[in-house]
Amino acid sequence: MLIKNSPAWALPENDVTPEAIYLNRRSFMVSALAASAGVALPGLLAAASVPGKELPSMSRPEMSTSEKLTPYEDVVRYNNFYEFGTGKDDPARYAGEMSVSPWTVKVDGACGRPGTYNLEDLLQPSQYEERIYRLRCVEAWSMVIPWVGVPLAGLLKRFEPASSARYVYFETLHDPEQMRGQRSLFSTIDWPYREGLRVDEAMNELAFLAVGLYGRELPNQNGAPLRLVVPWKYGFKSIKSIVRIRFQEERPKTTWELIAPQEYGFYANVNPEVDHPRWSQKRERRLPSGLLSPNWRETVKFNGYGEQVSHLYKGMDLEKFY
Ligand SMILES: Nc1nc2c(c(=O)[nH]1)N[C@H]1C(S)=C(S)[C@@H](COP(=O)(O)O)O[C@H]1N2
Ligand SMILES: [Mo]
């Protein structure tokens, strides 16, 4: 009898999902570090054709959750990115029509270093971190995603925000030629997609700019090449494919607030105590979720990040500032 002496991380090839590869690559790196075993990486990455360039290995700070990751396939196939259509599978189908290189970000408003920056000049791969965050959409579904990127605060500080700057405003690419949803006659959105944060929210350690997920460059449908991730707020605050950052004194008008201000507020903190006018926010479906196993769970205030962010809202009536 042939006994294959394969290490624990060597899954049979047909069992190899992108998240298994990713997890094994991670645990392999950790154990390799611990044992200083100079063994080469297994050929698993080549075995599963996961698109996107692999990013360097990264530190994973403590604020990462250890909850089960949402499978890669769900993260990249079930999306909201109205620039490419309103169906959940539209972004995966059509976001490839957007070119993300070269990419520039215009920085302006109340800051010492305004300008138009090439993306490569804003980011240093050696500084990438990994953050495993819960993402809770206002529509009451959620995921757990391993992001790669940089803390938002560090990047913003390099532009030397003025003390008069109380808000940071973000804008997504507006290019109807590349974004078919922007050509749609049925769209109720006044493009570009806009979002914003109070400066103290933007400087919170959890606020993150993602350039990748599952250890690889962001797929376009997830907001390549640069997207915001603010995990204690409903998903619509996490604006994708950012081309503009502005520091300003007044609170910006944001896309969903402009569309339906009685339903979507500027703050949009995840809050099971404040229902959406048309549905409850007390529970959420954790993906993957099916008709037979919807995988409902209780929604937690600030999406479970209260320890890090509740001080930002001290004394505020969160029913009024939803
Ligand atoms: N530019 C832009 N950013 C966007 C959206 C969008 O339609 N356009 N949708 C938002 C919503 S509602 C959610 S829930 C998240 C979804 O991110 P994901 O597709 O990576 O899961 O992106 C947010 N960012
Ligand atoms: Mo959302």
UniProtKB/TrEMBL annotation:
Residues that, per the record, bind Mo-molybdopterin: 79, 82-83, 137, 172, 222, 227, 238-240
One Pfam family this sequence matches: Oxidored_molyb
Annotated transmembrane regions: 28-50
GO BP annotation list: protein repair
InterPro entries (UniProt xref): MsrP, OxRdtase_Mopterin-bd_dom, OxRdtase_Mopterin-bd_sf, TAT_signal
Swiss-Prot/TrEMBL keywords: Membrane, Metal-binding, Molybdenum, Oxidoreductase, Signal, Transmembrane, Transmembrane helix
Reaction(s) this enzyme catalyzes, per UniProt: L-methionyl-[protein] + a quinone + H2O = L-methionyl-(S)-S-oxide-[protein] + a quinol; L-methionyl-[protein] + a quinone + H2O = L-methionyl-(R)-S-oxide-[protein] + a quinol
Cofactor: binding details: Binds 1 Mo-molybdopterin (Mo-MPT) cofactor per subunit.
Essential cofactor(s): Mo-molybdopterin
The enzyme's E.C. designation: 1.8.5.-
Residues covered by the Oxidoreductase molybdopterin-binding domain: 100-256
Modification after translation, per record: Predicted to be exported by the Tat system. The position of the signal peptide cleavage has not been experimentally proven.
MF term (GO), any: molybdopterin cofactor binding
Role noted for this protein: Part of the MsrPQ system that repairs oxidized periplasmic proteins containing methionine sulfoxide residues (Met-O), using respiratory chain electrons. Thus protects these proteins from oxidative-stress damage caused by reactive species of oxygen and chlorine generated by the host defense mechanisms. MsrPQ is essential for the maintenance of envelope integrity under bleach stress, rescuing a wide series of structurally unrelated periplasmic proteins from methionine oxidation.
Family statement drawn from the similarity comment of this UniProt entry: Belongs to the MsrP family.
Record text on subunit structure and interactions: Heterodimer of a catalytic subunit (MsrP) and a heme-binding subunit (MsrQ).
Protein name: Protein-methionine-sulfoxide reductase catalytic subunit MsrP
